[in-house]
Protein backbone atom coordinates (compact mmCIF):
# COMPACT_ATOMS: atom_id res chain seq x y z
CA UNK A 1 0.00 0.00 0.00
CA UNK A 2 1.43 3.39 -1.00
CA UNK A 3 1.89 6.10 1.59
CA UNK A 4 0.57 9.63 1.07
CA UNK A 5 3.31 12.18 1.60
CA UNK A 6 2.44 15.76 2.55
CA UNK A 7 5.32 18.08 1.69
CA UNK A 8 3.97 21.36 3.07
CA UNK A 9 5.79 22.67 6.13
CA UNK A 10 4.26 23.11 9.54
CA UNK A 11 3.33 26.57 10.78
CA UNK A 12 4.91 25.73 14.14
CA UNK A 13 8.25 24.75 12.67
CA UNK A 14 11.21 26.94 13.62
CA UNK A 15 14.63 27.24 12.04
CA UNK A 16 16.47 26.60 15.31
CA UNK A 17 15.05 23.13 15.71
CA UNK A 18 17.39 20.16 15.75
CA UNK A 19 17.81 17.60 13.04
CA UNK A 20 14.84 15.33 12.49
CA UNK A 21 14.25 11.83 11.32
CA UNK A 22 11.26 10.30 9.51
CA UNK A 23 8.99 8.04 11.56
CA UNK A 24 5.64 6.35 10.94
CA UNK A 25 2.87 6.44 13.52
CA UNK A 26 -0.18 4.22 13.51
CA UNK A 27 -3.52 6.03 13.69
CA UNK A 28 -7.08 4.72 13.50
CA UNK A 29 -8.91 5.42 10.29
CA UNK A 30 -12.54 6.56 10.32
CA UNK A 31 -14.98 3.63 10.31
CA UNK A 32 -17.48 5.72 8.32
CA UNK A 33 -15.60 5.38 5.08
CA UNK A 34 -16.86 3.86 1.85
CA UNK A 35 -14.42 2.32 -0.57
CA UNK A 36 -14.67 2.59 -4.32
CA UNK A 37 -15.74 -0.73 -5.88
CA UNK A 38 -12.80 -2.86 -6.94
CA UNK A 39 -13.07 -3.41 -10.71
CA UNK A 40 -10.46 -5.07 -12.89
CA UNK A 41 -8.86 -3.12 -15.73
CA UNK A 42 -10.22 -5.58 -18.31
CA UNK A 43 -13.77 -5.01 -17.12
CA UNK A 44 -13.24 -1.25 -17.15
CA UNK A 45 -12.13 -1.41 -20.77
CA UNK A 46 -15.14 -3.56 -21.71
CA UNK A 47 -17.53 -1.12 -20.03
CA UNK A 48 -15.91 1.84 -21.81
CA UNK A 49 -16.19 0.10 -25.18
CA UNK A 50 -19.89 -0.64 -24.57
CA UNK A 51 -20.56 2.95 -23.49
CA UNK A 52 -18.87 4.26 -26.64
CA UNK A 53 -21.17 2.10 -28.75
CA UNK A 54 -24.20 3.51 -26.91
CA UNK A 55 -22.98 7.05 -27.67
CA UNK A 56 -22.66 6.42 -31.39
CA UNK A 57 -23.72 9.51 -33.36
CA UNK A 58 -23.63 11.95 -30.45
CA UNK A 59 -20.47 13.77 -31.55
CA UNK A 60 -21.87 14.32 -35.07
CA UNK A 61 -25.08 15.72 -33.61
CA UNK A 62 -23.20 18.08 -31.28
CA UNK A 63 -20.96 19.29 -34.10
CA UNK A 64 -23.88 19.88 -36.48
CA UNK A 65 -25.88 21.63 -33.78
CA UNK A 66 -22.99 23.96 -32.96
CA UNK A 67 -22.50 24.85 -36.61
CA UNK A 68 -26.21 25.62 -37.04
CA UNK A 69 -26.23 27.78 -33.92
CA UNK A 70 -23.30 29.81 -35.22
CA UNK A 71 -24.97 30.15 -38.63
CA UNK A 72 -28.25 31.36 -37.14
CA UNK A 73 -26.46 33.86 -34.91
CA UNK A 74 -24.50 35.18 -37.88
CA UNK A 75 -27.62 35.56 -40.02
CA UNK A 76 -29.49 37.30 -37.22
CA UNK A 77 -26.67 39.80 -36.71
CA UNK A 78 -26.44 40.52 -40.45
CA UNK A 79 -30.21 41.03 -40.67
CA UNK A 80 -30.42 43.19 -37.57
CA UNK A 81 -27.64 45.59 -38.62
CA UNK A 82 -29.47 47.39 -41.50
CA UNK A 83 -32.74 47.34 -39.57
CA UNK A 84 -31.10 49.07 -36.62
CA UNK A 85 -29.52 51.69 -38.88
CA UNK A 86 -32.87 52.37 -40.56
CA UNK A 87 -34.62 52.83 -37.18
CA UNK A 88 -31.97 55.30 -36.03
CA UNK A 89 -32.34 57.32 -39.23
CA UNK A 90 -36.13 57.44 -38.91
CA UNK A 91 -35.84 58.49 -35.25
CA UNK A 92 -33.54 61.39 -36.14
CA UNK A 93 -35.83 62.48 -38.99
CA UNK A 94 -38.86 62.61 -36.70
CA UNK A 95 -36.97 64.58 -34.03
CA UNK A 96 -36.81 61.70 -31.54
CA UNK A 97 -33.09 61.72 -30.88
CA UNK A 98 -33.57 61.63 -27.10
CA UNK A 99 -35.77 58.56 -27.21
CA UNK A 100 -33.95 56.75 -29.98
CA UNK A 101 -32.33 54.30 -27.60
CA UNK A 102 -35.65 53.31 -26.05
CA UNK A 103 -37.34 53.01 -29.44
CA UNK A 104 -34.55 50.87 -30.81
CA UNK A 105 -34.64 48.57 -27.80
CA UNK A 106 -38.42 48.17 -27.94
CA UNK A 107 -38.44 47.62 -31.70
CA UNK A 108 -35.48 45.23 -31.46
CA UNK A 109 -37.23 42.99 -28.97
CA UNK A 110 -40.32 42.66 -31.13
CA UNK A 111 -38.23 42.24 -34.24
CA UNK A 112 -36.19 39.43 -32.70
CA UNK A 113 -39.28 37.46 -31.78
CA UNK A 114 -41.09 37.88 -35.11
CA UNK A 115 -38.88 38.90 -38.03
CA UNK A 116 -35.61 37.21 -37.15
CA UNK A 117 -36.91 33.71 -37.74
CA UNK A 118 -34.68 31.57 -39.92
CA UNK A 119 -35.37 28.39 -41.83
CA UNK A 120 -32.62 26.45 -40.01
CA UNK A 121 -33.86 23.07 -38.81
CA UNK A 122 -31.90 21.26 -36.12
CA UNK A 123 -31.47 17.50 -36.46
CA UNK A 124 -33.14 15.17 -34.03
CA UNK A 125 -30.84 14.36 -31.10
CA UNK A 126 -29.84 10.73 -30.46
CA UNK A 127 -32.22 8.97 -28.11
CA UNK A 128 -29.48 8.23 -25.57
CA UNK A 129 -28.94 11.94 -24.80
CA UNK A 130 -32.29 12.18 -23.02
CA UNK A 131 -31.14 9.51 -20.57
CA UNK A 132 -27.70 10.88 -19.70
CA UNK A 133 -26.43 13.33 -17.08
CA UNK A 134 -22.84 14.55 -17.45
CA UNK A 135 -20.60 16.58 -15.19
CA UNK A 136 -19.64 16.30 -11.51
CA UNK A 137 -22.03 19.01 -10.36
CA UNK A 138 -25.03 17.80 -12.37
CA UNK A 139 -24.63 14.16 -11.34
CA UNK A 140 -24.16 15.23 -7.70
CA UNK A 141 -27.40 17.24 -7.78
CA UNK A 142 -29.34 14.31 -9.25
CA UNK A 143 -27.98 11.90 -6.65
CA UNK A 144 -28.88 14.30 -3.84
CA UNK A 145 -32.43 14.63 -5.19
CA UNK A 146 -32.78 10.84 -5.40
CA UNK A 147 -31.49 10.37 -1.85
CA UNK A 148 -33.86 13.01 -0.45
CA UNK A 149 -36.75 11.48 -2.35
CA UNK A 150 -36.08 7.96 -1.10
CA UNK A 151 -35.49 9.02 2.49
CA UNK A 152 -38.62 11.15 2.41
CA UNK A 153 -40.74 8.11 1.54
CA UNK A 154 -42.01 9.41 -1.83
CA UNK A 155 -43.13 6.41 -3.89
CA UNK A 156 -45.60 8.01 -6.31
CA UNK A 157 -44.52 7.32 -9.89
CA UNK A 158 -45.84 10.70 -11.08
CA UNK A 159 -43.71 12.68 -8.61
CA UNK A 160 -40.81 10.27 -8.27
CA UNK A 161 -37.82 11.37 -10.40
CA UNK A 162 -36.35 9.05 -12.97
CA UNK A 163 -33.77 6.86 -11.28
CA UNK A 164 -30.11 6.43 -12.13
CA UNK A 165 -28.91 2.91 -12.84
CA UNK A 166 -25.18 3.35 -13.47
CA UNK A 167 -22.71 6.08 -12.54
CA UNK A 168 -19.52 6.08 -14.60
CA UNK A 169 -16.54 7.92 -13.12
CA UNK A 170 -13.21 8.67 -14.83
CA UNK A 171 -11.51 8.27 -11.48
CA UNK A 172 -7.97 7.92 -12.85
CA UNK A 173 -8.26 11.20 -14.79
CA UNK A 174 -9.75 13.45 -12.09
CA UNK A 175 -7.22 15.70 -10.38
CA UNK A 176 -7.50 16.39 -7.48
CA UNK A 177 -9.32 13.17 -6.48
CA UNK A 178 -11.21 14.95 -3.70
CA UNK A 179 -13.54 16.38 -6.35
CA UNK A 180 -15.24 12.99 -6.59
CA UNK A 181 -14.71 11.63 -3.06
CA UNK A 182 -18.39 12.27 -2.22
CA UNK A 183 -19.77 10.12 -5.06
CA UNK A 184 -19.46 6.71 -3.29
CA UNK A 185 -21.15 8.14 -0.19
CA UNK A 186 -24.12 9.45 -2.19
CA UNK A 187 -24.48 6.16 -4.07
CA UNK A 188 -24.32 4.21 -0.80
CA UNK A 189 -26.85 6.54 0.83
CA UNK A 190 -29.30 5.86 -2.01
CA UNK A 191 -28.71 2.09 -2.09
CA UNK A 192 -29.09 1.87 1.69
CA UNK A 193 -32.77 2.79 1.34
CA UNK A 194 -33.31 -0.55 -0.45
CA UNK A 195 -34.53 0.76 -3.85
CA UNK A 196 -35.81 -1.72 -6.44
CA UNK A 197 -32.95 -0.85 -8.81
CA UNK A 198 -29.76 0.05 -6.91
CA UNK A 199 -27.17 2.33 -8.47
CA UNK A 200 -23.94 0.75 -9.69
CA UNK A 201 -20.74 2.78 -9.40
CA UNK A 202 -18.19 1.91 -12.08
CA UNK A 203 -14.71 3.39 -12.51
CA UNK A 204 -13.34 3.77 -16.03
CA UNK A 205 -9.71 3.26 -17.12
CA UNK A 206 -7.16 6.02 -17.45
CA UNK A 207 -7.72 8.19 -20.51
CA UNK A 208 -11.46 7.56 -20.54
CA UNK A 209 -12.28 11.23 -19.89
CA UNK A 210 -10.63 12.36 -23.12
CA UNK A 211 -12.26 9.54 -25.09
CA UNK A 212 -15.74 10.30 -23.73
CA UNK A 213 -15.35 14.04 -24.32
CA UNK A 214 -14.48 13.41 -27.97
CA UNK A 215 -17.41 11.04 -28.44
CA UNK A 216 -19.81 13.38 -26.63
CA UNK A 217 -18.54 16.47 -28.44
CA UNK A 218 -17.99 18.46 -25.23
CA UNK A 219 -14.92 19.60 -23.29
CA UNK A 220 -14.99 17.32 -20.24
CA UNK A 221 -16.85 14.22 -19.10
CA UNK A 222 -15.46 13.32 -15.67
CA UNK A 223 -18.70 11.73 -14.41
CA UNK A 224 -21.67 10.36 -16.33
CA UNK A 225 -24.95 8.95 -15.04
CA UNK A 226 -27.18 6.67 -17.12
CA UNK A 227 -30.89 6.48 -16.34
CA UNK A 228 -32.62 3.22 -15.56
CA UNK A 229 -34.84 3.59 -18.66
CA UNK A 230 -32.00 4.20 -21.12
CA UNK A 231 -32.21 2.26 -24.40
CA UNK A 232 -29.90 -0.75 -24.81
CA UNK A 233 -28.99 -0.60 -21.12
CA UNK A 234 -29.30 -4.36 -20.71
CA UNK A 235 -26.12 -4.95 -22.73
CA UNK A 236 -24.19 -2.72 -20.34
CA UNK A 237 -25.77 -4.24 -17.22
CA UNK A 238 -24.75 -7.73 -18.35
CA UNK A 239 -21.10 -6.66 -18.10
CA UNK A 240 -21.26 -5.24 -14.56
CA UNK A 241 -23.02 -8.08 -12.76
CA UNK A 242 -19.91 -8.65 -10.62
CA UNK A 243 -19.66 -5.02 -9.48
CA UNK A 244 -20.52 -4.82 -5.76
CA UNK A 245 -23.43 -2.63 -4.66
CA UNK A 246 -22.36 0.07 -2.23
CA UNK A 247 -24.37 0.26 1.00
CA UNK A 248 -23.84 1.60 4.50
CA UNK A 249 -25.91 0.75 7.55
CA UNK A 250 -25.35 4.19 9.15
CA UNK A 251 -26.82 5.86 6.04
CA UNK A 252 -29.93 3.69 5.87
CA UNK A 253 -33.45 4.64 6.87
CA UNK A 254 -35.07 3.09 9.94
CA UNK A 255 -36.92 0.55 7.81
CA UNK A 256 -33.78 -0.82 6.17
CA UNK A 257 -31.40 -0.61 9.13
CA UNK A 258 -32.20 -4.03 10.58
CA UNK A 259 -31.92 -5.79 7.24
CA UNK A 260 -28.64 -4.07 6.37
CA UNK A 261 -27.12 -4.90 9.72
CA UNK A 262 -27.86 -8.57 9.14
CA UNK A 263 -26.45 -8.50 5.61
CA UNK A 264 -23.44 -6.24 6.24
CA UNK A 265 -20.55 -7.67 8.28
CA UNK A 266 -18.76 -5.62 10.91
CA UNK A 267 -16.20 -3.29 9.37
CA UNK A 268 -12.69 -4.43 10.36
CA UNK A 269 -10.41 -2.02 12.17
CA UNK A 270 -8.16 -0.15 9.77
CA UNK A 271 -4.93 1.44 11.00
CA UNK A 272 -3.24 4.00 8.80
CA UNK A 273 0.49 4.75 8.88
CA UNK A 274 1.05 8.49 9.26
CA UNK A 275 4.40 9.71 7.97
CA UNK A 276 5.84 12.38 10.28
CA UNK A 277 9.16 13.49 11.80
CA UNK A 278 10.73 13.53 15.24
CA UNK A 279 14.00 15.04 16.56
CA UNK A 280 17.02 12.78 16.36
CA UNK A 281 18.18 13.86 19.84
CA UNK A 282 15.10 14.17 22.03
CA UNK A 283 17.10 15.44 25.04
CA UNK A 284 18.47 18.43 23.10
CA UNK A 285 15.02 19.17 21.65
CA UNK A 286 13.44 19.21 25.13
CA UNK A 287 16.15 21.57 26.38
CA UNK A 288 15.51 23.96 23.49
CA UNK A 289 11.79 23.94 24.15
CA UNK A 290 12.35 24.63 27.88
CA UNK A 291 14.68 27.54 27.17
CA UNK A 292 12.24 28.92 24.60
CA UNK A 293 9.38 28.82 27.09
CA UNK A 294 11.52 30.55 29.74
CA UNK A 295 12.51 33.30 27.30
CA UNK A 296 8.90 33.84 26.30
CA UNK A 297 7.85 34.05 29.95
CA UNK A 298 10.53 36.68 30.70
CA UNK A 299 9.48 38.70 27.65
CA UNK A 300 5.86 38.62 28.76
CA UNK A 301 6.82 39.63 32.30
CA UNK A 302 8.89 42.57 30.97
CA UNK A 303 5.94 43.82 28.92
CA UNK A 304 3.61 43.68 31.93
CA UNK A 305 5.82 46.04 34.03
CA UNK A 306 4.79 49.72 34.40
CA UNK A 307 6.47 52.15 32.01
CA UNK A 308 8.36 54.00 34.78
CA UNK A 309 9.92 50.83 36.17
CA UNK A 310 11.26 49.57 32.85
CA UNK A 311 14.96 49.88 32.07
CA UNK A 312 15.36 52.38 29.26
CA UNK A 313 18.60 52.44 27.33
CA UNK A 314 20.19 55.93 27.02
CA UNK A 315 20.75 55.21 23.35
CA UNK A 316 17.09 54.49 22.62
CA UNK A 317 15.15 57.06 20.64
CA UNK A 318 11.43 57.82 20.63
Give the CATH level 1 class of the domain at 41-56 and 126-263.
Alpha Beta
Q: How many strands?
A: 6
Quote the average pLDDT: 77
Radius of gyration: 33 Å
Largest sheet: 4 strands, mixed
Decide which structural class fits the backbone.
alpha+beta
The helix tally amounts to 9
State the end-to-end distance.
62 Å
Helix content: 40-55%
Element-level helix/strand string: EHHHEHEHEHEHHEH
CATH superfamily of the domain at 41-56 and 126-263: Ribosomal protein L30/S12
Q: Walk across the major sheet and give the strand order.
A: 2-5-3-4
Unreliable segments of 5+ consecutive residues = 99-117
Coarse shape? extended
- Portion of residues in beta strands equals 5-15%
So, CATH architecture of the domain at 41-56 and 126-263? 2-Layer Sandwich
CATH fold call of the domain at 41-56 and 126-263: 60s Ribosomal Protein L30, Chain: A
Task: Give me the secondary-structure topology.
Layout: E1 20-28, H1 41-54, H2 58-93, H3 100-114, E2 132-134, H4 136-151, E3 164-169, H5 183-191, E4 200-203, H6 208-216, E5 223-227, H7 233-237, H8 254-263, E6 271-279, H9 282-304
Parallel strand pairs: 3-4
Antiparallel strand pairs: 1-6, 2-5, 3-5
Helix pairs in contact: 2-3, 4-5
Amino acid sequence: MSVKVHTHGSNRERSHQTEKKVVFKGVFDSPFRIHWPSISVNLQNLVLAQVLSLLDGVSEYQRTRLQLLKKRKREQSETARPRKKKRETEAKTNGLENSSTTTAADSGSSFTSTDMQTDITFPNPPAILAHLTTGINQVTKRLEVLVRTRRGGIVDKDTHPIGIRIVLVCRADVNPPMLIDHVPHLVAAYNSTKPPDPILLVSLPQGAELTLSEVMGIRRVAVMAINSDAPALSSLLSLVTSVPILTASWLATEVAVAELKRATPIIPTHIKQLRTTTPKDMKVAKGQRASGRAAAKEKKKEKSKPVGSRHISPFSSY
